Amino acid sequence: MSGLERNADLRALNTLGLPAKAHHLARPATLDALRQLLAERDLSQPVFVIGEGSNLVIDGDLPGLTLSLAIDGMVKVKEDDSHVWVAAGAGVHWDDLVAWTVAQGWQGLENLSLIPGTTGAAPFQNIGAYGVELSQVLEQVTVMEIASGKVLHFSAAECEFAYRDSRFKSRDRGRYIITGIELRLNRQPRCNIDYAPLQAFFAQRPGEAVTPAAVREQVIAIRSSKLPDPTVLANAGSFFKNPVVPASLAASLQQRHEKLVSYPQPEGVKLAAGWLIEQAGWKGRRLGPVGMHSEQALVLVNHGGATCDDVTALAEAVCRDVKARFGVELEQEPVRMPGPTPNR
Ligand SMILES: Cc1cc2nc3c(=O)[nH]c(=O)nc-3n(C[C@H](O)[C@H](O)[C@H](O)COP(=O)(O)OP(=O)(O)OC[C@H]3O[C@@H](n4cnc5c(N)ncnc54)[C@H](O)[C@@H]3O)c2cc1C
Q1: Name one GO biological process term (predicted).
Q2: Fewer C-beta within 10 Å: the chain N or C terminus?
Q3: Overall fold of domain 234-337
């Protein structure tokens, strides 16, 4: 197979900076190149897909074939009086897509500004931030089935999106490679500024128009002040999902903890995992070379030289202490690779 790197160092392909190698790494830039790589691979070995590695915990070397898609391109597909449809390749850096659409004045992606990673990974966990999820603007996802090399399209409903979840992350994990997405954006600005800091910013400036560009600027300012930059301090963003617990448990916790941060949901009550971790005493605390960030307790950081075992030990300690104090189970957000499900 051409274009294969052997024993490729993956340290720069995972923002937690964990040491690992890919036995074979390829960066296909077209559907044909991807199909050829799949057809010629060793069928007894697994296939992995890595974007920019900003939501990964790599647990040792990756056997088989690792693909990092370089399929680029961002185009307007069609438009009507109210909407514009935009397509982008899986290899496009997500924030480049956001910046381009916002610069055109199209509304829909501004709250998702500055989320690290690739466009192809965005549907995998239905990325979300500041009151908006990708699922709200996604029209369809294009995939290649690993087993057959067939190209298929899934509508947003068929992607089975949920909070930080989709069919690609759950029941179809390892079955498809996302090669591109299509979005439906608004031509008229109808920005969502429900998130309290955004609301407060625009409330203080009644003369300032709530445009996609103005919201993007604020989102970037808020994110830059709150989240550690992985190029400075290695991390994979939020390390745990915000747990959704039964209303009865939330009510009893609220009685004991006046300041519990909670958001009612149709299926229960969502608790702020960062608050639980902080209350359990882990904010800014280290265990060996890893720790929970001193400003944002939800972010696990690698202070240098950490291995996957160090990350696992800290994650388990945090989960144990949160469970003991609040009776709440935390679930890890970043994907462990190689994971429990073999790719097909
Ligand atoms: C500082 C920081 C802040 C973050 N903030 C947010 C946030 O606000 N909201 C949020 O939702 N996430 C956030 N994240 C997580 C991360 O940015 C997103 O999950 C992002 O979509 C991951 O993109 P990636 O290309 O790095 O994917 P990777 O980490 O490389 O991969 C993640 C998973 O997606 C799969 N995958 C990747 N590409 C494809 C593809 N083409 N086809 C099929 N599967 C694929 C991989 O196999 C893996 O299982 C943050 C991360 C960091 C480091």
Answers
A1: regulation of cell shape
A2: N
A3: 3.90.78
